[in-house]
């Protein structure tokens, strides 16, 4: 007899199979027991009929505790009533590992309690659905950039300098020198683009942000593509193609997780329609001022969550906001050709209140301009000599962007808080488990 994964049940209808699974829940009456089973590939039901199994097996089934691990033997049947569509008519049960007093019971628990038990909470159906979508977004990211001719470039996690100054940085000691946990792989990606044309980095980044919001993690994963010989317009087209590809991949491969989450697939389908609208920062300020909802809002401020939510709702699609004030953006962004108060950059804002998911720009190419910016930003010139070399030896127009993986997942899954989009979230006041 074959041991199968639950997800493959559709290929084994009316066959007798064996499944390794955990019991998530159970209901029973005099003559029947319903076992809710999961094996990490899917969730489905085992039906144990008193008349079909030995008295020992029926007694065992009725006494099973939540999260006991089992081998279940039985025959697969279609089950129209469940999300999943199949169930197993149980012939035999073998207990593999006992489970007493599993802390996460089917009743409601508070978020702190669940976060303290994150190592177990991951087993629940909703967390399963989110992690499968996370996995698909990661898989599709590699597929997309491979298809577009990119090379994956691994940037270091320990760095001796910081792209955006020394605030919000985790500091550590490195054999008698200062070192920091990386906040972004971008500067290294730029070196990669000058070596291999089109590259992307993808790894964890760290920000000691004291902000406690629904959109900020302390440790999160960022995808950072960087493209040589590419101006901003072409980069924006690449960005919207990438986002549409991710959404389409989730629609194509994650129907079951999306159904578990109750995510509206028609809403997601609209996000695959290109192009996305674009609005300049100047016009965005006007829109916000005319709305009458943002008292005292003036040109020059950075947008917070309410402004980003308003703008994306206004366009009812992901929207690019172009050319922010130079004063609120990092030193490496390309200056505007005819205005010295804005830079050639864009943030992509997601609708439904999810805010910024991508930040990107064309990069400054002139070594003297960059030296001046580094000085003005109060950064240490010596730390950036290697970066300036990229402009000294064959500088070319180039552009890049950073996508926050967990922001993307939170938006696509329709969840209200970023903490459930990563297996073990690192947040203000939380580093356990
Ligand atoms: P925000 O203004 O929302 O703090 P940011 O301007 O600091 O974002 P960038 O430095 O441009 O963001 O980083 C690129 C992307 O990384 C953002 O568009 C977002 O998707 C993601 N991101 C930034 N900070 C966080 C965080 N603390 N937790 C999770 N994702 C983040
Ligand atoms: Mg930030």
The CATH class of the largest domain is Alpha Beta
Mean pLDDT: 96
Tell me the name of the CATH homologous superfamily of the largest domain: Bira Bifunctional Protein, Domain 2
Going across the biggest sheet, name each strand in turn: 7-11-12-17-16-15-14-13
Ligands and ions found: adenosine-5'-triphosphate, magnesium ion
What would you say the CATH architecture of the largest domain is? 2-Layer Sandwich
**What is the gyration radius calculated from CA atoms?**
26 Å
Terminal Cα span: 39 Å
The secondary structure category is alpha+beta
Largest sheet: 8 strands, mixed
Helix content: 25-40%
CATH fold-type name of the largest domain: BirA Bifunctional Protein, domain 2
Structure keywords:
2 domains; 32% helix; eight-stranded mixed sheet; BirA Bifunctional Protein, domain 2; OB fold (Dihydrolipoamide Acetyltransferase, E2P); alpha+beta; elongated; 26% strand; binds adenosine-5'-triphosphate; 433 residues
């Amino acid at each position: 007899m074959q041991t199968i994964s639950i997800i493959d049940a559709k290929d084994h209808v009316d066959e007798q199979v064996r499944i390794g699974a955990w019991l998530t829940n159970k209901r029973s009456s005099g003559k029947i027991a319903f076992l809710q089973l999961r094996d990490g590939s899917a969730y489905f039901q085992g039906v144990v009929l008193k008349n079909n199994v030995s008295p020992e097996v029926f007694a065992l089934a009725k006494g099973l505790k939540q999260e006991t691990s089992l081998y279940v033997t039985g025959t697969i049947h279609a089950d129209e009533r469940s999300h999943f569509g199949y169930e197993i008519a149980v012939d035999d049960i073998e207990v593999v590992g006992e489970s007493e007093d599993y802390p996460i019971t089917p009743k409601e628990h508070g978020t702190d309690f669940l976060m303290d038990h994150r190592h177990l909470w991951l087993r629940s159906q909703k967390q399963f659905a989110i992690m499968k979508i996370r996995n698909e977004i990661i898989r599709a990211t590699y597929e997309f950039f491979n298809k577009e001719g990119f090379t994956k470039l691994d940037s270091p996690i320990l760095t001796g300098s910081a792209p955006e100054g020394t605030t919000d940085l985790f500091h550590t000691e490195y054999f008698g020198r200062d070192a920091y946990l990386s906040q972004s792989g971008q500067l290294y990606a730029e070196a990669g683009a000058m070596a291999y044309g089109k590259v992307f980095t993808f790894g964890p980044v760290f920000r000691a942000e004291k902000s406690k919001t629904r959109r900020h993690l302390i440790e999160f994963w960022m995808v950072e593509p960087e493209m040589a010989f590419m101006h901003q317009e072409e980069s924006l087209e690449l960005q919207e193609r990438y986002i549409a590809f991710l959404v389409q991949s989730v629609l194509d491969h994650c129907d079951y997780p999306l159904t578990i989450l109750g995510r509206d697939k028609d809403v997601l389908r609209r996000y695959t329609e290109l192009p996305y609208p674009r609005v300049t920062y100047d016009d965005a300020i006007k829109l916000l001022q005319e709305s009458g909802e943002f008292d005292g809002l003036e040109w020059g401020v950075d947008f917070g969550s309410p402004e980003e939510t308003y703008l994306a709702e206004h366009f009812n699609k992901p929207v690019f906001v172009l050319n922010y004030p130079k004063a609120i953006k990092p030193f490496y962004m390309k200056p505007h050709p005819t205005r010295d108060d804005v830079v050639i950059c864009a943030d992509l804002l997601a609708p439904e209140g999810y805010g910024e998911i991508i930040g990107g720009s064309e990069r400054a190419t002139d070594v003297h301009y960059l030296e001046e910016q580094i000085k003005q930003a109060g950064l240490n010139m010596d730390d950036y000599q290697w970066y300036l070399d990229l402009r000294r030896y064959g500088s070319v127009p180039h552009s890049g962007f950073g996508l926050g993986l967990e922001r993307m997942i939170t938006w696509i899954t329709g969840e209200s808080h970023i903490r459930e989009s990563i297996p073990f979230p690192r947040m203000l006041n939380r580093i356990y488990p």
